[in-house]
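Try this one yourself first.
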């Protein structure tokens, strides 16, 4: 049978397979959301060869292309990546298998119950090549997670300020600590994570204090004055003052007020508004990972998995006894974002460690900058006891 030469994706090897189909299929027989939606969206009214219904159907070869895309995402030819091994099942290291196994063991988890469809697809895609898992010895996600762990280990326990010396601080994978920061920068740009905070947006601040009437002016609620900026924050090291705030009053209170601290029985909330629009990196807006069957989205699956883990790490609750060391990686990431000319942003939106569904904002304003660049609403001040 002649082989149709269809190449929607550059890297996918369609040549191996026979795509010269005559059948039409509807969306009800394959248990994968992406493939179902693809058929519903791209199909036209007609008769399904597998259930005889008049319904939205698509040429079978278009479904085969998706399946091949998924196979190509997950597997590769061991001849290209594995050492020869006389004792291996097919003469290679690791777990190798042929198309018969791949299909009959349903490695793609398609759960096709219609026997005719199951056999038709087998008939078209069957071939002599061998497969092995691309991820068997570590996925791209594993690699990125290892790189992030390496970065944390170096900056927490080895070198805080000069970790950019690549040759000195590279790990066994030849990953240097700076490379993971570049990955973060590139992801921010690639996934368009920079968002605009409109001018005059409401930003809540909160401060816990000792005497009832001590917080009554903008300067009392603004970023900490440099002379008092002696505490480490999640995003700022001691000595570098930033404006932590939120659009949610309740969250701001939750983040700031420590009800076990009886030496400060009062807290005050107030509203600031930005005079100019602000450009913020929104770390709460990571895209949902695409399907392995979607050639335009599956290349980002690993990066998105890494970013989700990275952000969980950035937002995780940290015991105050550990904070001096544990906040160092996020402080460095913050500084890298802050002074990065390729990003050129004023702050970061990140998930709250108290409640991951709520968003905190840090704006890179010290005490004077927060007073100069933000309008303060005196009438918004509200003092309560804890
Ligand atoms: Zn059908």
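Now uncover the answer:
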């Amino acid at each position: 049978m002649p082989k149709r030469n269809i190449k929607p994706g550059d890297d996918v090897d369609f040549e191996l397979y026979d795509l010269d189909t005559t059948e039409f299929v509807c969306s009800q027989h394959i248990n994968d959301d992406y493939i179902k939606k693809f058929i519903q969206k791209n199909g036209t009214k007609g008769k399904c060869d597998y259930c005889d219904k008049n319904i939205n159907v698509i040429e079978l070869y278009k479904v085969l292309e998706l399946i091949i895309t998924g196979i190509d995402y997950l597997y590769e030819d061991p001849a290209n990546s594995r050492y020869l091994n006389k004792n291996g099942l097919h003469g290679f290291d690791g777990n190798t298998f042929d198309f018969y196994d791949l299909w009959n063991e349903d490695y793609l988890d398609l759960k096709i119950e219609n026997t005719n469809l199951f056999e038709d697809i087998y008939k078209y895609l069957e071939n002599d090549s061998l497969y092995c898992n691309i991820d068997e010895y570590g996925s791209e996600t594993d690699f990125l997670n290892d790189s992030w762990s390496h970065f944390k280990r170096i900056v927490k326990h080895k070198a805080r300020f000069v970790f950019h010396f690549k040759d000195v601080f590279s790990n066994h994978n030849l990953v240097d600590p700076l490379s993971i920061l570049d990955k973060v920068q590139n992801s921010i740009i690639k996934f368009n994570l920079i968002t605009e905070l409109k001018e005059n947006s409401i930003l809540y601040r909160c401060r816990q204090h000792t005497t009832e009437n001590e917080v009554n002016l903008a300067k009392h609620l603004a970023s900490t004055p440099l002379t008092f900026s002696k505490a480490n924050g999640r995003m700022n090291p001691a000595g570098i003052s930033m404006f932590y705030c939120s659009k949610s009053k309740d969250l701001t209170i939750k983040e700031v007020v420590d009800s076990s601290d009886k030496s400060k029985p009062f807290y005050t909330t107030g509203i600031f508004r930005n005079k100019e629009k602000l450009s913020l990196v929104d770390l709460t807006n990571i895209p949902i990972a695409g399907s392995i069957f979607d050639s335009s989205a599956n290349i980002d699956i690993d990066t998105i998995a890494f970013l989700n883990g990275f952000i969980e790490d950035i937002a995780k609750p940290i015991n105050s006894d550990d904070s001096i060391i544990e906040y160092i990686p996020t402080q460095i990431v913050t500084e890298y974002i802050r002074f990065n000319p390729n990003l050129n942003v004023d702050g970061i939106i990140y998930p709250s460690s108290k409640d991951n569904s709520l968003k905190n904002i840090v704006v890179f304003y010290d005490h004077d900058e927060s007073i100069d660049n933000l309008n303060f609403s005196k009438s918004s001040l509200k003092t309560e006891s804890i």
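Discussion: The first strand starts at residue 24 and ends at 26. Residues 115 and 166 are 56 Å apart (CA to CA).
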